[in-house]
Every structure is written in C-alpha cells, then in structure tokens.
Design goal:
The protein has a single domain, classed as Rhodopsin 7-helix transmembrane proteins (Rhopdopsin 7-helix transmembrane proteins), CATH 1.20.1070.10. The protein has 13 helices and two strands. A two-stranded antiparallel ribbon has the order 1-2. The longest helix has 34 residues. The protein is globular. 34% of the residues are buried. Keywords: Cell membrane, G-protein coupled receptor, Membrane, Olfaction, Receptor, Sensory transduction, Transducer, Transmembrane, Transmembrane helix. It holds the Pfam family 7tm_4.
C-alpha cells in the first residue's frame, strides 16, 4: 500500500452518514412523519393513476400522454429513492445510513432529476409540433420516435450521474458525518470531506450547465416559437385554445425548477438562514413536484380528468 493510500485510509473515520430531521428538534420529528406519509401515499396514488389511465384508455395513446407517462415514471423514481429514507428518519428515528447506500441514493436522485428535466424539454417540443404542424403531429412523433427519445433521456441521466459515486468515494471523510437533510445529496456530503473538492464542484457546475441550464434555455426558445406560432393564428379563440394546451406543462416546469433553484441557492448563499429553512426547502425539493404534477395534469387535462371521474363513478356504482 502506498503512503498516499495509507494517508487517505487514515483520514476515513466513519463508514456511515447521519441524516437529520428537524434540526435541534429531533423529539418533534414524529409530528412531520404522518403528513409525510400521507404525502408519499398521495404521490404514489396520483402517479400510478396517471399511468393506469393512459395505459387503459386508447384515446390517450398520443405523444403528449406518452411523455406524461415518462414524467410520472420519473416522479415515482424520485419519490421511491427518497421517501422511505425520510420516513425512517422522521417516524422511526433511523438516522444512520451506510456510506454506499448514501452514494446510491444520491445517484438515483440525480438520474431521475436530470431525466425529468429532459422530459420537460421533450414535452415543450411536443407542444411546439402540435401547435405548429398539427396535421403531421402523429407522423413526426410516432411511437418509435417517442421510445427513442425516452431511451435517450434516461441514458443521458445515467451517463451524467455515472461519475458521481466515484467522485464521492475518492474523498476522505474525517470531519463530522452529519448531513444537512433527511436524504443524501452530492453537495451536502461533499462539504464533509477533508480534502480538495474542486473536481467535484467543477463537475457539478458542468453537469448543471449542460443539463438544467441548457434544458431551460431550450424550453424558453420553444415557448418563444410556440407564442409566435399561436399569435399568427387568425382566430383569437383558436389561439387561446392552442395556448391553453401548454398551461399544464408550464406549471410542471415551474414546479420542477423553482424548488431546485431554491435549494441550490440556499446551499450556496444561504449559510445565514435557519437550519429549519434548509430542511423545509430540501423536503419541498423532492416531495412536492412528484405530488403536484399528477394533480395539475388531472385538473387541467380534460381527457384525464374525465377518465378519472369515470373510474370513480364506476367504483361508486359497484358499491
């Protein structure tokens, strides 16, 4: 064993991280546990309902709803990657997480996060094609094209996240092993390392620029083109109808990006903020988007709303 390896090994003083619930108020964690469980149950119910409705109703076998299915799968993946750990912290005070499990969790969080960002881009492109060239909409976005887009999006998320476990595992940890949240994030664990983390910081910056920032710019350009196309429609009623099909997608964009930006800004510039603020923002970041997306699409999309009402009505008739 080389001297450098022995030095790094001697620095590693722990093989687990400690997650926290309400900072300084651990005895109050149980008050958060039940609402969090209800939120998790509603998230699973909402997204599985979206998937079931789209699968069972052939009239919804269109590009827009296939992309919505991808969004629901991404939301389910994010929830299942984080919520069990969070419930363990708040409900059972199970705060220790093995080092490798922590790395695995952050890996899957980022996979589904970057995949969701790409799906929102694909949905913007879908809306642009539907408004710009409705007669060729189905031919341009055929089932095979949509499958290829889905594979590319999830492959991008996998390739972008692949280096993260290796970047974290190479770091020695000799400081506190207490994380700032009830789940694992790369930037949170990185702060506990007692070594130079510039490579991690640089890679994180490159990933954000090449995924979230680039995706946001593409979405912005798409909506500029959508707005130009809609305004060129002679009929005001048809123009408003075309723009109305984008409302749910715009809401999904805000639901995804606002909490992400908030958590990133809090990590970078919010050191003076109360730890409780950091806790709330981190929980909103992973818990709220998967909950709200199916609600928004169920409320704003008439076909999905009608299909859900039919299912509920059928259930009542059986009773």
């Amino acid at each position: 064993m080389s001297s450098i390896t022995r030095f790094n090994s001697s620095l590693v003083s722990h093989q687990t991280f400690v997650l926290i619930g309400i900072p300084g108020m651990q005895e109050q964690n149980s008050w958060v546990a039940f609402p969090l469980f209800v939120l998790y149950a509603l998230t699973l119910l909402g997204n599985f309902t979206i998937l079931y409705v789209i699968k069972s109703d052939e009239s919804l076998h269109e590009p827009m709803y296939f992309f919505l299915s991808m969004l629901a799968c991404s939301d389910l993946g994010l929830s299942m990657s984080t919520m069990p750990t969070m419930l363990g912290v708040y409900w059972f005070d199970s705060r220790e997480i093995p080092f490798n499990a922590c790395i695995s969790q952050m890996f899957f969080i980022y996979i589904f996060q970057w995949a969701e960002s790409g799906i929102l881009v694909a949905m913007a492109f879908d809306r642009f094609i539907a408004i710009r060239d409705p007669l060729r909409y189905r031919s341009l976005l055929s089932n095979s094209v949509i499958v290829k887009i889905g594979i590319i999006l999830f492959s991008r998320g996998l390739s972008v996240c692949f280096p993260i476990p290796f970047l974290i595992k190479r770091l020695p940890f000799c400081k506190s092993n207490v994380l700032s949240h009830s789940y694992c994030l790369h930037q949170d664990a990185m702060k506990l390392a007692c070594a130079d983390t510039r490579v991690n910081v640089l890679y994180g910056l490159i990933v954000v620029m090449c995924t979230v920032v680039l995706d946001a710019l593409i979405i912005l350009v798409s909506y500029i083109l959508i707005l130009r196309t809609a305004l060129s429609i002679a009929s005001r009623k048809e123009c408003l109808k075309a723009l109305n099909t984008c409302v749910s997608h715009i809401a999904a964009i805000l639901i995804f990006y606002v909490p992400m930006i908030g958590v990133s800004m809090a990590h970078r510039y919010g050191k003076h903020l109360s730890p409780i603020v950091h806790m709330l923002m981190a929980n909103i970041y992973v818990a709220v988007p998967p909950l709200l997306n199916p609600i928004v699409y169920s409320v704003k999309t008439q076909q999905i709303r009608q299909r859900i009402c039919n299912i509920l009505q059928l259930g009542k008739n059986r009773e």
